[in-house]
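hiii, so i know i said id send this last week but things got crazy w the move. better late than never?? heres the sequnce for the chain we talked about at the cafe, plus the structure i predicted for it. fair warning i was half asleep when i ran it
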Amino acid sequence: MSVRGIINKARHFAKYRGRGPVALLNREAKGRMIRAIVEDFAGRPASGLTILDIGCGNGGISNHFSKQGNEVFGVDVDDKRKGQDLGFEFRLVESERLPFENQRFDLVISHHVIEHVPDQALHLAEIRRVLKPTGLCYLATPNKTSPFMEGHIGNEWVLRHAQMQPLFERCGFDVKEYSFDVLSRPDEFFAEKRYGRFIPKRAAEALRPWYPSHLFMLRPL
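okay and structure toks below
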């Protein structure tokens, strides 16, 4: 390896040290954040629901929701649960298509999944298909516009901020973005990064197109 290659690799590990592969991360905190967003949007507790977690990874988010009295299903292209005894039903999938009947779920979670699927319109169409007419979808995705976006080097499927809401609307959803809410009210949403409380609200709003990732609630039209 060249000297430049060694330096670049060192920078990469310095940037991500302590985080490790996503499959090994504790997702309990992320589950609390997602639940707080869902509850804020819905205006009621996220319990007693039938939930689908797409790209459930190690199962931490699915397990968090199952402990709140929900019936939870998780799907992924690989089983990363590592034999854990988790409180949800897991199914393997091979594509964007979901192995569930129409209007099955009250809530679908798509947390940093859409940037990994080649047919994003199909991913969204399948979410809409399996949602009940009164159902909701939480969706998070990185932002290719941001100079602070982590990872995804060379991934052409990552959306730019200006593409996100128009795509979701074209696929039949009413859209509310929660990125600013979470940044400016981190305590209410159990946000892992809490520096937003120190940023003036006007500045935080103006900087929204450069946030490294974006959070949305979608409701089928």
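btw The first helix runs from residue 3 to 16. thought thatd interest u
miss u guys!!
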